[in-house]
Inverse folding.
């Protein structure tokens, strides 16, 4: 029987790439989406076309009632979960002095609280079914550097890494590993979807990144495949940065290598 991976926010971007790579690696997929229903349905068709199973659920992970409803439906349909990948996230940016409670709540309810309780209920399911599973949380390299207007977003992403350390320590006795991935700039549009303004900004960003490109969602998916597998069996409670070296330069006025 194939192992099963849950991927939240699989309708587009990084979540789409993760789910596709996990399915290509032999996992059946159960995924959630909030607003990207068309992408989720498209992905479901691709995965089922590979001969893998794929169930999709609408779930707003910022709402506890949605989280509980998802797990009730999932537990009724599936015997167990082997891998939980918490990818769902939103970005709300504003200068610190202009950040509102509403914006702060949107970011933290999705990126932080949603991940926390999805992980808790996923871990409970793994323990109840005797699965030595893996929980992978998608953070951001914002957790370790400073971009304008990101006090709420960066704080929430930093919380995921620290949470991963503590959860890994507590869950180790159950054979459950917890790992965090912190991507940097990651492509989410095809070249024909890029406006001239987007292309100009992209060229500027490429100049600042030592590897001179964005990451690909499939590359984050490849990291998830590795971290979920047996070759990563001794890895837990750590954060993997995937940002092309974006955090490395520290020279004033850095213009690229």
């Amino acid at each position: 029987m194939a192992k099963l991976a849950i991927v939240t926010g699989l309708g587009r971007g990084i979540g789409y790439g993760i789910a596709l790579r996990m399915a290509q690696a032999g996992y059946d997929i159960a995924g959630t989406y909030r607003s990207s229903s068309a992408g989720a349905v498209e992905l479901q068709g691709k995965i089922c076309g590979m001969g893998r199973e794929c169930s999709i659920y609408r779930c707003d992970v910022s709402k506890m009632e949605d989280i509980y409803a998802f797990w009730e439906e999932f537990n009724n349909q599936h015997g167990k979960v082997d891998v939980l990948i918490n990818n769902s996230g939103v970005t709300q940016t504003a200068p610190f002095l202009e950040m509102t409670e509403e914006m702060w709540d949107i970011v933290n309810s999705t990126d932080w609280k949603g991940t926390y309780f999805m992980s808790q209920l996923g871990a409970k399911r793994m323990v109840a079914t005797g699965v030595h599973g893996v929980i992978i949380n998608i953070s951001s390299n914002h957790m370790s550097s400073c971009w304008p207007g990101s006090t709420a977003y960066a704080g929430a992403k930093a919380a995921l890494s620290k949470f991963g350390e503590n959860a890994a320590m507590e869950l180790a006795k159950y054979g459950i590993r917890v790992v965090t991935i912190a991507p940097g700039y990651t492509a989410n549009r095809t070249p024909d979807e890029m406006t001239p303004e987007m292309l100009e900004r992209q060229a500027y960003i490429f100049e600042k990144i030592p590897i001179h490109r964005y990451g690909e969602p499939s590359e984050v998916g490849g990291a998830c495949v590795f971290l979920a597998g047996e070759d990563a069996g001794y890895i837990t409670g750590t954060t993997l940065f995937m940002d092309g070296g974006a955090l490395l330069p520290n020279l004033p006025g850095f213009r690229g290598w």
Remarks:
- The radius of gyration is 18 Å.
